[in-house]
Amino acid sequence: MPVQVAPPIANAIAAELNPNIPGLLPPEPMGNQFENEDALRSDLHGLAIRIPGTESEVRLYGFAKVSSYYDLSGRNQTDAPPPQFIPLNNSAADQQGGELAVTARFSRIGVDTRSLTNWGTLETRIEGDFAGGAPTSTNAVFRLRQAWAELGTESFRVLAGQANSVWNEGIYETIVDATNLNQSFTRQAQVRATGRLAPGLTGMVSLEAPETQFTSVAGVFNPGTNFTGGASPAFNTAPDMVGRLTYGNDGLVADVRGLVRRLSVRTAGTAASPPNVSMNATGWGVAGHVRMPMRWIWEGFGADEVIGMAYYGEGIGRYFAGNTTGQDALSNIGLPGVVGGSLDPLPTYGVAVSYRRFWAPQLRSNVAYAYSRQDYPSYALNFVPGSPSALGLNRDMQQFFANLIWSPFGQIRNGVFGSGFMDVGLEYILTRRDLFGGSAAAGPVGAGLGITNRIVGVVVGRF
């Protein structure tokens, strides 16, 4: 009897990567294969195949990335510099001057699977990179980025595991590996529900892993901090609750998101006791952004787009890791004359704007500006000048980006850009932070600022 033979795996992969090649059909929707049809063709992008004899498919993805940077001002020995910690003017790092570095530690690898079930599609992801070690070391250490499973349909699905926070928003395209000013790239354990509420409108809610962070005269604390050899007074008592609404239509994307948190401090059993103090505070935040295709104004703009974002919150410090890590709240515990103490969520707000210009389908630039401000309680003036607690208090921060990125395999289809297998980019970054009064290492109240200039070069090869 003649035997039905599926096309070779190589053809299936080629069909996915090049769906318009004459003679090769585009991938069929998952679940449409019959016994005598293309059992190996996957609807996942990239290096993916359907497992013969099953209703499952698997994909391998990732990239190899080499990054180089040179600081034109103070020495800042990290390839992922948080704006809140750039060197201060006239500091030792500033006096040393700039330095060149090259690294490949942000190269990434991941595995996706999809399986059809009676309850919809079950998708899983395991992803990591090699950025777990010190930025100055060539001995890259593998770290887990994402590990989750999601079950459901386009109408409703539920995710459990470590994934990008529902709060996350990268906003604009940069090539540096840092969490930049007003960007959020938090990844943490969560349970999330996603539903399609109307055509183009998606809603998401999640319960996410908490992490109370606060700053006092004694330092910066989270629940895992070793405080003089003992436990930390920062405490977790309830998950963070996050929600988001996103609307998309013909390239336009608009969203609004919010979160509510519980911040807690327990000094019993720590070096901060006596007295035993138990304090709780509520953190909350709202944010929104709009991504608008410029072709809506004039077709001659092509795939260009303009982006705007704004946020306000109290006690949301760790969700802006480049701005306010360790500053969900401030506390006056340990200051002279303070009995009991207080836990004060930090008010913070900011804006960001960006323009993305396509000079050609394979060549583009991004220009962006971001501003943030933090309003500290007056008792923070009594933090010891020059101490880590004081030097981390930035009243205002600003950042400017400009880059040029070449994607030799990039394509624009129906106004949507895909970068393809490779990026080569060059970027200039200007960052400034102005310290809260009395926080400078030396000088009068209100003194202290840092300004850095950095040039970054990147080559990325994807698979």
Q: Care to describe what's here?
A:
The protein is mostly beta strands. The chain folds into two domains: 1-54, no CATH class; 104-390, Porin. It contains four helices and 25 strands. It has a 16-stranded antiparallel β-barrel with strand order 2-4-5-6-7-8-9-13-14-15-16-19-20-21-24-25. Strands 11-10-17-18 form a four-stranded mixed beta sheet, with no helix packed on it. The protein has a two-stranded antiparallel sheet with strand order 22-23. The longest helix has 9 residues, at 9-17. 35% of the residues are buried. It holds the Pfam family DcaP. InterPro entries: DcaP (IPR045748).
Please name the defining characteristics of this protein.
463 residues; mainly beta; 2 domains; 16-stranded antiparallel beta barrel; four-stranded mixed β-sheet; 4 helices; DcaP
Write the layout of secondary structure elements.
Blueprint: H1 9-17, E1 47-50, E2 56-71, H2 92-96, E3 100-103, E4 108-117, E5 120-129, E6 143-152, E7 156-164, E8 187-198, E9 201-208, E10 214-216, E11 219-221, E12 234-235, E13 240-249, E14 252-266, E15 278-293, E16 305-314, H3 321-324, E17 329-331, E18 343-345, E19 347-360, E20 363-374, H4 388-391, E21 394-406, E22 411-413, E23 416-418, E24 422-435, E25 449-462
Parallel strand pairs: 10-17
Antiparallel strand pairs: 1-2, 2-3, 2-4, 2-25, 4-5, 5-6, 6-7, 7-8, 8-9, 9-13, 10-11, 12-14, 13-14, 14-15, 15-16, 16-19, 17-18, 19-20, 20-21, 21-24, 22-23, 24-25
